[in-house]
Amino acid sequence: MKDVALGLAQLGRALRAHRVATSLRDELDAAEALAWVDALDREEVRTALRIALRISRSDFDTFDRLFQAFWEGRPPAPSVPARDHERERARVRATPSLHWNPDSRRLGGPPEPGAHGSTPAASPEAVLRRKEFDRSWSDRDLATMERLLARLARRLATRRSRRWRPTHGRGRADFRASYRRALRTLGEPVSLARRARDLDRPRLVFLLDTSGSMDAHSRFLLSFVLCLRRAAPGAEAFAFNTELVHLTSALAPGKIRLTLDRLAARVRDWSGGTRIGDCLAAFVHGHLRTEVDSRTVVVVLSDGLDRGDPAILAEALRTIRRRARKLIWLNPLLGDARYQPTQSGMAAALPFIDHFAPAHDFASLERLLPHLAS
Asked: Is the model's pTM score more than 0.85?
């Protein structure tokens, strides 16, 4: 909490330097507001701070510019009289800039310089966010990507829902429940009832195409599913190519790449051909009733290159969509602007899909997060 207070004090000082009125009381309100938002969601943090610091509409642009600089770990441009410019510049250089650390959920100093020196450069993580899954990956890059996927899974597992639940700890005062509680003590309000936003725990079922054309992409999404089950157990995973295999029992804790190698050995015809319609029909007949209900989001990862009958695929998806909360189809080919979903399998699937999106790099998986949680 001390680091958060220090960071917010720096933000308040920068706002006042730009003639945006903030007070110590506002900064304390902002520190408390950060405890009730998703610390990894930039828009939630920005909105919470803008409200708590009582930023007027005329100062929105100034606040957004300063917040952007602080979020990215850059010092804001000072707004001082010309005669004090050099003195203020020296003070800013000596003061660590405010930086939001999503892992520690704190506002603090800038990240430590890397082993290669302090020269500003694109971080390895920033580069890997845009690196396509079907490129060549070194062992170091794979390890970094595993950490990114684990962080993404934690974001989904700890996402706050719109629902509120009673809590015995910190939370928003529930005056209606407090009045009811006061009736037990002859109308004397001995204690306040409180509510807090509940965690959104979506039910997820992944159907992963492990045919040859999907090999690299399915392995990365399987890594994401492994990380997700560690953060919030409950996601189910199936692999399909020429037949359907239930993978969940094999998603045991341990080294991700070792687990993936074991899965590749377990699934017949891994990296082979694919019969999407037949495999999804097998899922409908064998697992739909037990694994999917009105709260379940079903995610299919496939390029839609089906060697089977498109009518079978369409009927299977129609049945899944009728029972599930949402049907998402991830197609890595959508990462190419020239791609058109005109293949018979993909064309048959489109009428039943709620969200059709690419899954060719980490950034595309990040954009998927709100659709998995809603």
From this structure: no
